[in-house]
Amino acid sequence: MPIRAFSGRGAPSNAVPQRFGLAAREADGDWLDEAAGIDGPAPKLRTTVTEEHPRAILSFNASPDIPFDRSINAYRGCEHGCVYCFARPTHAYHDLSPGLDFETKLFAKPDAASLLRKTLAKKGYAPAVIAMGTNTDPYQPIEARYRITRAILELCLEVRHPVAITTKSARVLRDLDLLAQMARMDLVAVSLSVTTLDPRLSGLLEPRASAPAKRIDALARLVDAGVPANCMIAPVIPAITDEFMEGIVERAGAVGVQSANWIMMRLPHEVSPLMREWLDTHFPDRAAKVMNTVRAMRGGKDNEPDFHARFRPQGAWADLFRQRFRLAIRRARIPQRQVTLDCSRFRAPSADGQLSLL
User: Fold this and answer.
1) Which of left, alpha, beta for 353 (phi over 0: left; psi -120 to 50: alpha)?
2) pLDDT truncated to tens, each residue of the chain (358 aa)?
3) 66: closest CA among 258, 268, 311, 267?
4) Of 80, 120, 113, which Cα lies nearest the Cα of 350?
5) Mapping DSSP to helix (H, G, I), strand (E, B) and coil, where does residue 230 land?
6) Are 105 and 48 in contact (CB under 8 A)?
7) DSSP state, 349?
8) With left for phi above 0 and alpha for psi between -120 and 50, is residue 75 left, alpha or beta?
9) How many CB atoms lie within 10 A of CB 68?
10) Is 353 helix (H, G, I), strand (E, B) or coil?
């Protein structure tokens, strides 16, 4: 029997990881009752938010294949519900499912800006670009209420600290006033991820992210405001979204982005079975083709976790995608200009909120 999709949600199920020995969950029969007309439909899935108060907000890494060494994730989980999200397995650390729990049971860190201020005020802190949106989206819907991302940007503008933002949301335009000021000082760059140009497909893949047309419009408005804008085609899903690669590049070039890039879909840990369920639910006729193509680029596996190799698919299919992307960039005349953000303007604050005069 095919898995029933939940309206407005990306994951088809809520299975818990087996890696951590968590208790298994079983459906209580409500959907059967609904089908039989016994007690009506099952309760609608609601989004809940738990506030966290960590001791620090800036995370450091030493990964050799990513271009930043520090990041901020103001939220855990993401209501966008992108079924392919590589961050889903992190929800298991809360004894929650990387499936529906990841997009319905969210965590917010309202003290993020004040915690960052304390870190930046520490003696010996050396500035480098802070990446935002590396795990979950800083502009997911609950940002409209919490405004944590905006508070962080206000602080970074105040102390002249560079930031790189990645998002799938046109909500980034709400902070265009801050971003434009930061851009004039070479303090910010924004990457907007566009997966498809088909709004119906986007609604299945990433149900609560901005529609594709809104993301393209957001890129245009960022460019018009002087904010360095990059279009990410991420992820590319063979036989599902790859047909839109050239069209996305063409539209991104038309609005004047400085650069574009693409990333092949990654399926770490529980993301692989979730993606397989999603394919069986929405594209059963293509499910085998999609996964066979993925495995052909990942050494016969669903996922390649090794540094460098995880971002560099191999084989004939990967070569074809690279060639298509290069030709599309050439036709769209995207300059592929690399942005260098300025760390020299940084002015350390004091822990009580006052800027240093030196």
Assistant:
1) left
2) 455 567 788 888 887 666 666 566 555 555 555 544 555 555 678 899 999 999 999 999 999 999 999 999 999 999 999 999 999 999 988 889 999 999 999 999 999 999 999 999 999 999 999 999 999 999 999 999 999 999 999 999 999 999 999 999 999 999 999 999 999 999 999 999 999 999 999 999 999 999 999 999 999 999 999 999 999 999 999 999 999 999 999 999 999 999 999 999 999 999 999 999 999 999 999 999 999 999 999 999 999 999 999 999 999 999 999 999 999 999 999 999 999 999 999 999 987 666 555 4
3) 311
4) 120
5) strand
6) yes
7) B
8) beta
9) 15
10) coil
Q: How far is CA 327 from CA 245, 321, 334, in A?
A: 11, 10, 11
Kindly report the backbone phi and psi dihedral angles of residue 180, in degrees, each rounded to the nearest multiple of 5, phi listed first.
-65, -40
Q: Is-contact 168 206, C-beta < 8 A?
A: yes
Taking each helix axis as running N to C, give the angle between helix 245-254 and helix 316-332, from 0 to 180 degrees, rounded to the nearest 10. 20
Residue pair 137/127 in contact by the 8 Å Cβ criterion: no
Q: What is the CA radius of gyration of the chain?
A: 21
Q: How is residue 63 annotated by DSSP? A: -
Residues 343 and 339: their CA atoms lie apart, in Å, by 13
Question: Residue 350 carries which DSSP code?
Answer: P
Q: Helix or strand or coil: residue 188? A: strand
CA angle 52, 129, 312 (to 5 degrees): 95
Tokens representing 63 are 């990964």
What is the C-alpha separation between 144 and 215, in angstroms, rounded? 17
Who contacts 264 (Cβ-Cβ below 8 Å, separation ≥6)? 235, 236, 297, 313, 318, 321
Pairwise CA distance, residues 100 & 71, whole Å: 25
What is the full DSSP assignment across 311-346? G---SHHHHHHHHHHHHHHHHHT---PPP----TT-
Token pair recorded at residue 1? 């029997």
Q: Would you say 230 and 192 are in contact if contact means Cβ atoms under 8 Å apart? A: yes
